[in-house]
Automatic annotation (TrEMBL), chains A, B:
Protein name: DNA-binding transcriptional regulator, LysR family
Pfam families xrefs: HTH_1, LysR_substrate
Family: Belongs to the LysR transcriptional regulatory family.
Gene3D superfamilies linked: Periplasmic binding protein-like II, Winged helix-like DNA-binding domain superfamily/Winged helix DNA-binding domain
Top-level taxon in the UniProt lineage: Bacteria
Organism this protein belongs to: Gemmobacter aquatilis
Keyword annotations: DNA-binding, Transcription, Transcription regulation
InterPro entries, sorted: LTTR, LysR_HTH_N, LysR_subst-bd, WH-like_DNA-bd_sf, WH_DNA-bd_sf
DNA sequence: ATCATTGCATAATGGATTCTTATGCCATGC
DNA sequence: GCATGGCATAAGAATCCATTATGCAATGAT
């Protein structure tokens, strides 16, 4: 007989974190402040460890709380999926979505566009920046929902993550000279893909030369297609005229990275949950 | 303010399905039969639709119930993950795990072996069969937990699924003759990979010839390495001496398939949940 | 330094929820 | 025709949970 963790306790937990206080969480959830206090206490009793430390007007998370935070958000996402599956209401609202520059590709935009087409009442504003800027923007509530690279050691507001393995892309018409340094085309630093290309080459003892630094993926793809050099792409960004390159071309495999969906449950509208569900269904 | 779906209602729901009756579910959950009845009624009130129809000693699921079943199991899996995260107990027991023949590769076995090494009290018996046989075995409770190909139209006991995109593998030393029929190495029918290879070739108007039919992946890989022909592999099964082949080699892309983890919540021990969690963390 | 303010904890009460016991109903099978 | 197994329903009892009222600690302003 497994332990059932009441959903409303988890909801209270993440709401307190999202809104930074018991009193504000109580307002948002339509309860009084002592009710939230008791919910947190009951949750701590179930978990068997303290979770939130009230400290100088700030909420501090224990280690257990950080672990629970990620899992609780996953569980609430499914809860909201269930609710949405049977609600059958017209979604509407205004959503500010952030995607990393190196992932703002046709695939993601297509998925968002499809959702927007299916829910005409939802206005979506997509903003494309570096992952770390996206996380700052989510914290500051300038964005409602972001996809960003997820640090392996965890980070607040992570709802779901999935692995993406980048690979080398080269023009279909070109063979790499194994004697010459690898001609690298990449995004400007800081960039997870650039990091992975360099560390893979470094580990393999293969020299390289950066030939082009370009902000958007389309530019890199065009340059690769023109035969200028190689870059790291993902299955979603591999375009016509390009092929994967691998050990056969003298290029070492690239380490996988982890993309995460982040949002604050207490801040996201039903339309936001709908979009999250729709995107994750296509991504996983 | 979103709807919180009480975890215990979902637990009752899947337990009734898993054990095929209210009375048996009541025993398993340590409640009386009317308590389970009422839980189900409350869940139906939240969902807004009838879920289970008692019919001739059998439980029949409505369409809504089938939808809910998958999501409820996902939510309970996370619930049990949370419980396991803070329980910190020695796992022990006996687990019968099923993996599809075309997925019983080193990667999966390694992951299972790692878990077994970390939890010495758990004895694991891995059984490798065709996906459809695995599902029958799960239904008959000859297996506790299976990975199997998930039909797109849903199927009972699906807890989590993820996409796998197969690709063509060819010996690194060989070029395919574009004029000749594609030399196919494959598993015996029924096989999802074989289906995908044939339908991709058929759609592309490319003729093929089956050169070898072999039950296990290792045999196919050896044959591909020897230069006999091509087969469909996944990232986890791609071995040394092999390379991906793609449109550049005259081979059309293969359709992705969906692998699912299936188990009956009411039947799976804590050790089983631990293994599920451990495997999914490495797969997603 | 003092006092008001903000924010969480705690106690006690009332109400709502949910379990149990008791019982009824409807199949199926002998 | 009657017993049996299995779910539904009703009513009482126990539990759970939210509220009001109040206390306490920390912060910040005068």
């Amino acid at each position: 007989m497994p332990t059932n963790i009441p959903t409303d306790l988890l909801r209270a937990f993440v709401t307190v974190i999202d809104l930074g206080g018991y009193t504000r969480a109580a307002e948002a959830l339509g309860r009084t402040q002592p009710a939230i206090s008791q919910k947190l206490r009951r949750l701590e009793a179930i978990i068997g460890q303290p979770l939130l430390l009230a400290e100088a007007g700030q909420i501090r998370l224990t280690d257990a709380a950080r672990t629970l935070d990620t899992l609780a958000r996953q569980m609430l996402r499914i809860n909201d999926d269930i609710a949405a599956s049977f609600a059958d209401e017209r979604l509407s609202g205004w959503l500010r979505v952030g995607v990393p520059t190196d992932f703002s590709n046709a695939f993601m935009l297509q998925a968002i566009a499809d959702f927007a087409a299916a829910h005409r009442g939802v206005r979506i504003e997509v903003s494309s920046r570096a992952s770390r800027d996206l996380r700052t923007a989510l914290a500051a509530e300038e964005l409602d929902m972001i996809f960003a690279i997820a640090p392996e050691d965890g980070m607040p507001w992570l709802v779901q993550s999935f692995r993406v393995t980048p690979f080398w892309a080269i023009s279909a018409a070109v063979q790499l000279d194994p004697a010459a340094p690898v001609p690298l085309l990449r995004h400007p630093d800081p960039c997870e893909y650039a990091d992975r290309m360099r560390s893979a080459l470094r580990d393999a003892g293969r020299p390289w030369r950066t030939l082009l630094v370009c902000n958007d993926v389309e530019g890199l793809v065009a340059a690769v297609r023109a035969g200028l050099g190689v870059t790291a792409l993902t299955p979603a960004t591999l375009a016509a005229g390009l092929r994967r390159a691998d050990v056969g071309d003298g290029l070492p495999p690239l380490a996988p990275l982890r993309i995460g969906l982040f949002y604050k449950h207490a801040r996201l509208s039903r339309a936001g949950h709908g979009l999250a569900q729709s995107l994750l269904a296509r991504l996983i």
